[in-house]
Design a protein that fits this description.
Spore Coat Polysaccharide Biosynthesis Protein SpsA, Chain A, 361 residues, alpha/beta, 14 helices, eleven-stranded mixed sheet, 11 strands
Length: 361
């Protein structure tokens, strides 16, 4: 019996034969059955087409469309969106893995939070067979996400679920090549759509050398600057040329930490936010505290970290550091349970930031 799907899962794939079967199998094995998988084959030259047709023949919920020319990701995703029939749209990449309960939990979250336009989920990463936690201790609310988008991208693109009507109306910016997700989230924030992160571990996100983020760094940097200039203009104030020069390597990617410039940038955010009241002070401070934590991981000295922390409200710091520790522990326990449910055991790392390896059969 044909039934209108609750979720339209959209995927674009180019030469994805290595991990494609594992990705699609993780969709087919979902505990929630009311989905359709719309796959755009973007002119693959390997065995991707053969694999896709094999799955399409076996499961009528899978629909495959092959582009006549290579359209790249944003155009292919918009094409997939045009075919979507579900109430909700979920994203999936051809190299990632859904946990079996992903759709069930995401639909339940969206149904119980009708004000939310888009949500994502917690995730684990996998590289060379080793699985690790991702996002432990991070804040999940709309206010914090809007502030974080000023300094980073807190939303896992292949882990989202959103209202199809809004996704189809908005669409991805086809002029971009590797930052279409960031542009869409910032546009959602500008337009007042509510976005949240569901604190459940529902995805395994694959890290490998062929990812867009590791092969197109220069283009990615240019696109991020373009997107963030627009977002800053809408939410706070235009960045100066000096701030713009520091922003990419000192804030967004933290490749070149500079504590003094960090503090000046933080003052700028606080000053402009006091004028516009776009988000709460705590949300701005939280976003910058996450960047400072990254500075610490990059080896910035304890003395410089303490100097930067003096620029935060003492009351905020006491409250947030205590709350973050509790969130990280809670998320770590949830991550361990999720990993164990799909055959991985906690082998290294703390409870808050666990690392897993495949269980021995």
């Amino acid at each position: 019996m044909n039934q209108t799907p609750m979720i339209s899962v959209i995927m674009s794939v180019y030469n994805g034969e290595t991990y494609l079967r594992e990705a699609i199998d993780s969709v087919v094995s979902q505990t929630f059955p009311h989905w359709e998988l719309i796959v755009i084959n973007d002119c693959s030259t390997d065995s991707t087409e053969k694999i896709l047709r094999e799955y399409e023949e076996k499961d009528k919920r899978i629909r495959v469309f092959t582009n006549e020319s290579n359209l790249r990701l944003p155009k292919s995703l918009n094409k997939a969106l045009s075919y979507a029939k579900g109430i909700y749209t979920a994203r999936m990449d051809a190299d990632d893995i859904c946990l079996p309960n992903r759709f069930e939990e995401q639909v339940a979250f969206m149904e119980s939070h009708p004000e939310v336009a888009l949500s994502s989920c917690r995730f684990m990463t996998i590289k060379n067979g080793v699985v690790a936690s991702g996002g432990c201790g991070g804040k999940c609310d709309n206010d914090s996400i809007r502030a974080q988008l000023l300094v980073t991208n807190p939303i896992l693109h292949p882990g989202i679920i959103a209202k199809t009507e809004i996704m189809q109306k908005s669409g991805y910016d086809e002029t971009l090549t590797c930052t279409e997700d960031l542009e869409l989230w910032t546009r959602f924030a500008e337009q007042g759509y509510i976005m949240e992160i569901q604190p459940s571990y529902l995805m395994i996100y694959r890290l490998h050398d062929k990812q867009i983020t590791s092969t197109t760094a220069e283009r990615q940097h240019k696109e991020v600057v373009k997107i963030q200039k627009k977002y800053f203009d809408a939410m706070l104030h235009e960045m100066t040329k000096e701030q713009e020069a520091f922003y990419i390597d000192g804030i967004y990617f933290t490749n070149q930490p500079d504590v003094k410039q960090f503090c000046r940038f933080f003052r700028f955010l606080k000053q402009e936010n006091r004028k516009k009241k776009t988000v709460s002070y705590d949300a701005i401070a939280y976003a910058m505290l996450e960047i400072l934590a990254e500075y610490k991981r990059k080896g910035v000295s304890k003395k410089d970290i303490i100097y930067a922390m003096l620029h935060f409200s003492p009351m905020f710091l006491m409250k947030e550091l205590r709350a973050r520790k509790k969130r990280a522990y809670r998320d770590g326990v949830a991550c361990i349970r999720a990993a164990e449910s799909v055959g991985y055991e906690h082998s290294e790392g703390t409870v808050e930031f666990p690392i897993f390896r495949k269980s021995q059969q």
